[in-house]
Amino acid sequence: MTATTTKSIFWKGVRDGAPFLLVVGPFGLLFGVIATEAGLNLSETMGFSVLVIAGAAQFTAVQLMVDEAPTLIVLATSLAVNLRMAMYSASITPHLGAAPLWKRALVSYFLVDQSYAVSVAKYEKENWSLQQKLAYFFGVIIPICPMWYVLTLVGAMVGETIPDTWALDFAIPITFLALVAPALRTLPHVIAAFVSIVLALLLAGLPYNSGLLIAAVVAMMIGAQSELMIGRRK
Amino acid sequence: MIPDSAPIWLVIIVLGVGTFLIRFSFLGLVGDRQLPEWLLRHLRYTSVAVLPGLVAPLVIWPQATGGQIDPARMAAAAVTLVVGYLTKNVLAAIVAGGVTLYAMLFLIG
């Protein structure tokens, strides 16, 4: 009885993850193309998508390496992009924290934006056991994560054949703007984004591409601070 | 192009391990504990604090035009932002931005 329900919950996860194919697929493809155009070979490009498995941070790292930023700055800035995942980790722990260590490690590896958002939203609605919650999580990642690898590979293979006239230099800006725009949902988010832009432009001349990191840290603090101030006034 | 001297595998591995540790932080290491409110408040703004700053110079001074301001790329950026904001649909925003870029490049060359 429990076995069949767990199995059906797994397949429910697969179905709920499927729509994200439309988002993750093109990103993977784009990363493959961009990384190849930037001069990475096939194994390096795949290394990024398999070992890091975090699109925005991968694009950030590639862009900063193209800009010839020092390695420390490349790493610090790209990891900063991924800091939001600490929040995911914290908020999924009440649900999956009792699982065996190797399963928690596996969940952590696959804890991407989509699997986190879909799973936690579901956990809060259903009264599931740990086994059922795990089954659902692994169901959700089935359409998402393998597709990320496969389409990165496809992108890397077609990347070199794409001519300059396609203006792919602008794929990263468009992708990032598309990611950020829906996140501008409150005034503090808008303020943080604005501070980030202004400071990044003003500090663009700083050595070692350190301007972006400074801009990001200040923008984060101002975002948090303005949330406090706006909250207090209400 | 990424210079040959760039330690690409070092970046991949450290970024991979670091990203895993961020994801594993609470689930594997800290356990079920409430994050302090001030920390949560900062984490909420990481994406909007990093990505716009990364994009801004690429929009204003695109490498493809040798750092000259380019109306096609500016328009594409603006359309992407507006469509993404209004529809909250990432894919729709990318498509709208791409179409704008190509249309402008075609029209003004």
UniProtKB/TrEMBL annotation, chain A:
<feature type="transmembrane region" description="Helical">
    <location>
        <begin position="165"/>
        <end position="183"/>
    </location>
</feature>
<dbReference type="Pfam" id="PF03591">
    <property type="entry name" value="AzlC"/>
</dbReference>
<feature type="transmembrane region" description="Helical">
    <location>
        <begin position="20"/>
        <end position="40"/>
    </location>
</feature>
<keyword id="KW-0813">Transport</keyword>
<protein>
    <submittedName>
        <fullName>AzlC family ABC transporter permease</fullName>
    </submittedName>
</protein>
<keyword id="KW-1003">Cell membrane</keyword>
<feature type="transmembrane region" description="Helical">
    <location>
        <begin position="134"/>
        <end position="159"/>
    </location>
</feature>
<keyword id="KW-0472">Membrane</keyword>
<keyword id="KW-1133">Transmembrane helix</keyword>
<feature type="transmembrane region" description="Helical">
    <location>
        <begin position="190"/>
        <end position="206"/>
    </location>
</feature>
<comment type="similarity">
    <text>Belongs to the AzlC family.</text>
</comment>
<feature type="transmembrane region" description="Helical">
    <location>
        <begin position="212"/>
        <end position="230"/>
    </location>
</feature>
<dbReference type="InterPro" id="IPR011606">
    <property type="entry name" value="Brnchd-chn_aa_trnsp_permease"/>
</dbReference>
<keyword id="KW-0812">Transmembrane</keyword>
Automatic annotation (TrEMBL), chain B:
<keyword id="KW-0812">Transmembrane</keyword>
<dbReference type="InterPro" id="IPR008407">
    <property type="entry name" value="Brnchd-chn_aa_trnsp_AzlD"/>
</dbReference>
<dbReference type="Pfam" id="PF05437">
    <property type="entry name" value="AzlD"/>
</dbReference>
<feature type="transmembrane region" description="Helical">
    <location>
        <begin position="6"/>
        <end position="30"/>
    </location>
</feature>
<feature type="transmembrane region" description="Helical">
    <location>
        <begin position="90"/>
        <end position="108"/>
    </location>
</feature>
<feature type="transmembrane region" description="Helical">
    <location>
        <begin position="42"/>
        <end position="61"/>
    </location>
</feature>
<keyword id="KW-1133">Transmembrane helix</keyword>
<protein>
    <submittedName>
        <fullName>AzlD domain-containing protein</fullName>
    </submittedName>
</protein>
<keyword id="KW-0472">Membrane</keyword>
